Each structure stands twice: as structure tokens, then as C-alpha cells.
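Weekly structure sync, notes
Attendees: PL, DS, HV (note-taker this week)

Item 1: Transglycosylase domain-containing protein
DS walked through the input record. Source organism listed as Streptomyces cathayae. Sequence as pasted into the shared doc:
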Amino acid sequence: MQLKALGSFTAEETVQLRMPVQRTAGPKGEKPEQSGTSGIPGAAEPADESASAEAASAERIRGGGKAGRSPRSRNRNPRKAPRPSLRSRLAADPRLAPLLGVLAASAARLAPHARRMKPEYPRPGRTDWRRWLPSWRQWLGGTFAGIGLSGFFLVVAYAATDIPDDLNSHATQQDNVYFWADGTPMARTGWVQRQEMPLRDIPEDVRWAVLAAENENFYNDPGISPMGLTRAVLRTFGQGDTQGGSTITQQYVKNAYLNQDQTVRRKFTEAMIALKLDNRMSKEEILESYLNTSWFGRGTYGIQRAAQAYYGKDVSELDAGEAAFLASLLKGAGLYDPTLSSANRDRAVERWTWTLDRMVDIGKLSPAERATYKKFPEPLKSNPLYSTGEQSDYLVELASQYAKKAGKITEKQFDLGGYQIYTTFDKKRENRLTDVVTKARKKALKDDPKTAKAVHYGAASVAADGRILAVYGGPDHRKQGYNESNATTVPAGTAFTPFVYAAGLQHGVRTTRDGERTPVTGESLYNGDHDVPVTTPEGPYWDRSGRKVAAGNDGEKSYGQISLRRAMALSVNTPFMQLGMDTGLDKVRATAVASGLLPSSIGARVPALSMGSSTPSAIRMAGGYSTFAAAGEHTEPYSVHRVTRNGAKIPLDLPEPRRAVRAEVAEEVSSALTESFRTAHPDGAPATAKVAGKPGTTEKDTAAWYVGTHESVSTAIVVYRIDLTESLEPLPLEGLAGTADDSVPYGIWSGALGLSG
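Item 1 (cont.): predicted structure, written out as C-alpha cells:
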């Protein structure tokens, strides 16, 4: 059927409608009849050509009247078949069919109950306020829903919470502890008093005292206490804090990773990290970390420092009674340190008793053992680690510098702490030296306050093997960080002459330009007169101002021809100035450096070098004289012999002895110094004592020395004046060093060594 186009259609455009084929069932065995394209009964069936034409006409209409489009252009945006629904795809999977069947059956059974639990507000059939009251089914459904949502929330929170990579600074930082030569504590440094101890070094009684007081179920809990958390949350909302309810794991998390804020958020984060940590670390690792990071009061972190601060002993030496008291401090040292108040003591005793009883209840202390702890173990009145004293600050400074250098420890590593520095300092010698210098200082201030205000006393004792046994650095390190024992500011004066003597004995002398070197002995004679010109192979030595250089003796005394040994005994200076020239000032310098003086402190190579123009420190002068006591072998002075970090030994580059002069040379110098001491102080020491020493004076009276050896320990004392507020230029002593018969340096030296006279 064809219809004439309406409206906008052109005359040439027609619309052909194709009616669906109508199939009718014929008699049995016959094919069904098909209606014509118009769908009108009796219409003839169109030919194939007609059908093709009709299809082409319909294609033209769909294509907007554009004939001749290519198949590629016609299929550019083909229509996609609709995607099957998820339900249909699941149903089509034969593997899921049984499961879907079971779920469908279950849903059918639960559907009526779900409809009944669906809240209907206001509830039908109720009146007044009862209309708004949920039924028991609704209450039950809400409860299960809440539990499910809470569980889901906890799972998500657990997965989203990470254990922080960095510990709190106070959880990693430790203090550095310094020990005397006998192993007793000397001082500590660092902002935090903490030293890590392996769990194996902490006694069982100490561990269980802490667990009994804080978390007796530690080895069985998952890292948190649900009841404790609930109690803490209720307290937060009710009273504004979150006290109590924490396991050992939670407390460690708070100490090591979090802050001390008392909020629900912090408490929740603490619980999540504790759960993860409990799965990642063993219980032993957690307990060890907790015991090493907990705060115990008196500036201490960790059970090791607490044992030392309260009982002056290592944790390995604690008994159960002492451990029970330290465990009570975990509740708050400000409330349980008995030295702070009587109320604190009452609380401490009560908590101590309770902790010991709990140890019995959990089977970690027998009743018989418990019966032995009847008296409360009173702690020390103050922390002995804080009592470093003023003088020990100088010792710590020397030791820390040496430990870092010898152990190759960086400043950053050292500041993190945890090091145990075992020094060479002898406590008795140090105390004796400090006392005698302090008395001399007080006397000078009393006799001449104005002049003595700028006086300084440097002192050091060094053993023949290089160990620094004692030093005096100053009156107060907090006011004067300048270390008087290690200062290189004043000349050595005539105390330097033993090195000139050793150089002559070691290398011999040359008195002519091309002549051979000839040996020198203690019996070699030199001119000992005062103001004797110094000569060279070419004649007198002239300084830059055009004047002859001459040597002088103390008191302008002349001695004529005198042996070198006798000149050393009588402190005659002029022979040694000439000996230095004959030996060669380069040889003198090399001998002094080989014996222990620093190259930077050696004076210029002019005749004054032999008279002590060098400026060594008291430590270096003592170390130099110790070379003669050690048969000519020198060992660099050192103040630390062992360093450990949390028990692990740190390798140190300790000095090795090296040959400075021949043994016979050292023996001759020591013999001359012994004669010098006996001549000046015949009653200064017992006749059998091995004592040697020599005074030292300077040309301008800016320093006075006494350096000597007693029983293989060399001690150097120097007195000088410098006004640190003005400059570092030495000032005249103006009588502060005493006289030849009453020498202040010698008085300090003999007093420090415990000698008479």
C-alpha cells in the first residue's frame, strides 16, 4: 500500500509501509498461509524484487534520504546490544546456581521477619508514648546492626593505622655515662638519662615486679584491654582524662610513638598501634622496649637508669623488694618518690606492699621469699648521676673529645647517647690534686686579691704508658670553660731543658761547620757563667736587632765550667742554650716532638728555643717527662681506655708506644732529674722513692713550672697570669709563684703526690 506524502514531503518522496506477515494455520499437513505486505487478507505476496525495492526504499528513509552511503560509514556507530544484568549473569553461571538457590530460599524465609523488624513510627496499635517505643525485635536488630558497623569500623581503622617509622626523640636518645678508672660512675651527659639494657640482663624478679604492678596478663593479652579501654573512655567523657586501662604494650606505644595528650583520639590510635605491634613483635621484645623507655622520675628513662638513680646500682643487682618499689614509680614518680614528701612515702610503702603481694598471687614469688621483704627499701636521697661536681666537667670534656676521635664517633651519633665511656682518671689522685690547687688559689686570693684575680693553675698527671690520671682544669667549668691543664698559652721556660739535654745525648754535637758529630755525656763540660754569648761555628749569634745573644742564669749566678749533669741538677741555664746550638735546633725540636710535645707548640728555631720559648700544655709537659720514665718510649696521652654502647664494645684507636730516644739517653736524663730533685729538696721524699723533677722559670716571669716524676707517674704544674677579659697575653706573676725556697708550683706538685716538704 502506498500513501501520498503529507505536508513537507516532496512530490517524489513516498512512504511505503510494510505490514507484518500474518501466518494462519491451515489444515493438518498444509503450510500456513502468509498474508501480503499490507496485512490485508487476500492480498498477493510480493515478489522478491518488490521486497528488495521496499528494503532499499526503507534504507533511504533511515539514511535521511542520502543514497549511496558506504557500508563503512553506515556502521560507524552501530547500536550495542544491552549488557545483561548482574543477576542474569550470575544465574547463567552453573557453578553459582546451587549457592544462589540457597540464598534465595534463605531470603524468602527471612523476608517476613525483616518486614516485621522494619521500624514503623508511630507504631500502629499503640497510644501515647508507647507509639514511639521500638519493639524487642527492633531493639535486637539495632543491636546487631551496631555491632556489625562497629566491627566493620574497627577492621577499617586497623587496616588504615600504620606503626610510625620514627620513635619519639626521648625514646631513642640516651645519656652518655663516664666512669672512673676503677669502674665507678663519674658523670653523665645528655638531655635524657637513659641506657638500654637487654632483657636477658634484667632479672626475672624485676620483670615480674613490673608486670604484677602494671599488667599481669601481659603474655596472654592481644596488646589491648577492652575493659580498660572502655573504662578509660568513660573517664574521658565523665572527668576529662583517660587514666588507667592501659596494657604494657599500650604504655610502650604511648611512650615511644605518641604524645601524652589525654584524648579519646590518642587513646584510640594507641589501641590500634598496640594491636598491630603485638602481631609484629614478640612479647619479650615489647617488654624490653617498655622497660627501656618508661619514665621513672629523677630525670631517668629506663629501668637501668632508675636502678642507678634510686639505689646506686645496676639493674642486674636489684632484688625483688627494690624492683617492687621501682615498679610503683610507673604510676607517677611525683606521687611515689618517698624523698619528696611523707605522703609520697606512705603511698610508696602501700604500693610496694601491694606489688609484692601480687607477685605471690600470680605465682612469681613464694610466700617464704615474700616474708623476707618486711622493711621498705629506702632509696638514695638524691640521684648520684647528677652529682658530677665542678672539676669533673673538665674531665668529661677531655674524655668525650678523645672518645669521639679514637672511636670514630660522629657528633650526631654521640649526641644520641647510649655510650659508656671508661676513662683513665684516678679518682683519688684527682681529688687530691683538686684539693691542693683549690687551697693554693684561695691563699693567693686572700694574700693579694687584685693580682690573684687573674691567676691560673694548670695541672696534669700522666702515667708512663700514656694514661692521663688527673687534671686540674679550672675553678668552675660553668663559669670558665677554658681548660687550664690543656692550654698552650705560656712558655715552658727552663723546664724545657731536659729535652735539650736528651737531644744532645741522642745526636751528639757539632762545633765546626764541616766537623763530625761527637758524643755528649753527662760529664761533658760547658760554660756555666751568667750572660755568656751563644756561639755558632762561624762565631757569635746575632739577633735581628744586631745584638749578640747571651744566656742568663737565675739570680745572675755564674758557675764556671760545669758538667751537663751538674748543670741540670743545679738548674744552670747557660750550658743548655749552648748545647742546643751545638746539637742543632732542628734536632732539639725533633726530640721534643718525639717525646710528646705538639709541633704547633714548639717555638721558633732561634737560641731561645732551648730556654723554653715553646708553649706546651701541662698535659703535654707531663707526657714528655713520662717518656724519660718509660726508658725512652713515648705513648701519646689518652683519657679513655674503653667505650661501649649499650654493652657492645666500640673499637678504639688507642696509642701504641714508640721510640723517642734511646734507653740509655732516657736513663741519663732521669738520673739528672733525680739529682735535681734531691739537691733542691733533700727531705722532699723518702730515700727509697723514685722521684725526679725540675722547676721552670721564664725570662719575663710570666709562668712558673714544676715538672717531675714519682713512681713512673709524671706531674706538671704551671702557675701563670692571664686576664681573660682583656687578652690572652701572659702577665707578670708579681710574686704569686712564691720563691725558690717556697715555690708554689712545687708545693702543689708535692701535695698532689702526697709527698712531704
